[in-house]
Amino acid sequence: MGSYAAWIFTLGTELTQGRIINTNAAFIGRRLTLLGFNVLGVITLVDDVDLISRFISQILSGKPRVIVTTGGLGPTHDDRTLEAVAKAINRKLILNQEAFEMVKKKYESKGLELTPERIKMAYLPEGGVPIPNPVGTAPGCWLEVEGTVIISLPGVPKEMESMWITWVEPRLKPWGPGLSIVEKLMVVVGVPESSIAPVLKAVLKQYSEVYIKSHPEISEAGEPVLKIYIMYSHRDEKAARDIVENVLKSIEAKYREIYGRELKIVEVRDTGELSA
Description:
Structural class: alpha/beta
Number of strands: 12
Strand content: 25-35%
Strand order of the largest sheet: 2-1-3-8-7-6
Number of domains: 2
CATH topology of the largest domain: Molybdenum Cofactor Biosythetic Enzyme, Chain A
Shape: elongated
Number of helices: 9
CATH superfamily of the largest domain: MoaB/Mog-like domain
Radius of gyration: 22 Å
């Protein structure tokens, strides 16, 4: 799978049934990519311990660098993600004292008692490190298993995103390749995607390590609009930027060579900032 392979598990029957839009996968996939990880896939499963544990075990056999799960950390009967993780790695699910203090503090501040359902959220697989939840109640879990880190976060987007930005991402960066990711978005008008296809094919022959993808749209006037996304990573940021700039110039030149006219570019912008 490669040294910096990553997989995303978005868990919850509400996702598989289409009752909830899966924004978590897009957020995490984007952040992992910008950290230099190679996101190989997103797996969405129902809340079933045996099913989830089988899939996690299968992915672990390929020794990825990162597995991220979202969903299934709450107090209800179907919130059993960490039970599935523990089963997949053959570890016990135990009451984590640090996680217990986090949960206890949350409910005490609200004047609510610690019921068994609430204490359940403090159970982590052996060796797990609780991830603070500044927005909600359920802690996440950071778990290192033979060169792979398994990160389990709540399914509520606001909670997950806050935990990722404030706690997970700073700790995950050293696990990545230390690459600088440079992205550009070129917006052109008046060109159907079928016409740009031979241009991009030719450019990719020269820059095989660069990721180039076209996304067609239609303007209000019915005119074709193409967004051409370009991404390249390198340990040297200047080298990465130079390559991307050369790709942009090559697209223009190849279009001119093939069609005998200038490519109508309305915008070129950076898209790769790691911002909240």
